[in-house]
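Bumping with the actual sequence this time:
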Amino acid sequence: STIAFGGLLYGFSSASSMGWGNPVVLGSIVAGVVCLVLFVVRQGKIEDPLLQLGTLKTREFRVAAIIVTLINAACLVTNTLLPLLLQTSLGASAFETGMAMLPAAAVGIIISPISGVVFDKFGPRAISIVGLALMTGALFLLSLSTVNTPILVVALFCMLQSAGQSLANMPVNTWGVNALKNDMIAHGNAISNTGRQVGGAISTALIVTVMTMVSSSNAALGAVESTAVGVQAAYGVCALVGAATLVFSIVKVRSKKKEA
């Protein structure tokens, strides 16, 4: 498991800086995939597995794990994209960049307990759809940002993304874990956390690669403009992932009241 998850995380996270053809990147990813297959096979055969993969047989948990992974895949790369947009294209200082990203963190802290209350009252379906719609819309708006977009407007879009992410993330994860038997909850949480990390690392590598390719193809525009165009394309990919997650949630997430 150490080689499997460590190899995948290192390989994909290093691809944007080393290049996809780098032997270290390819070797890490191949080793990670091979060891992951061996790990899964072994977990299904031993009496006391490190991870009880049988948790994925529970429909609600399986759906929730996929949604949480996709949410992280769509949003984690913001930690890379937004500073580039703010500092390179909009001319913000490091301090201004931190201040622009601060409201998003604050909103996440405030929204999390509120989403728990709404989840208890209405179930996961409504809150997940609203949250994912808000998150996807904010990502789309970020994909429209240009060198003329005010920093405060970008900060607002980032805050809306964080609000949507917080609204959807915790309730969906809770819905999935609640469907498990008590002795399976620890395994379920471990699988969800692993999915978040691996999904975020893979998506960050792929999306940063898209940004780099688009920026390079528009190098004639200059560093400021080309970076903005690259970030636009990257956020466009994030918005597509968010839209796919929203559709998946609409189709698969069901509240207990509707299932009864």
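The tokens above came from a reply further down the thread. The mean pLDDT is 88.
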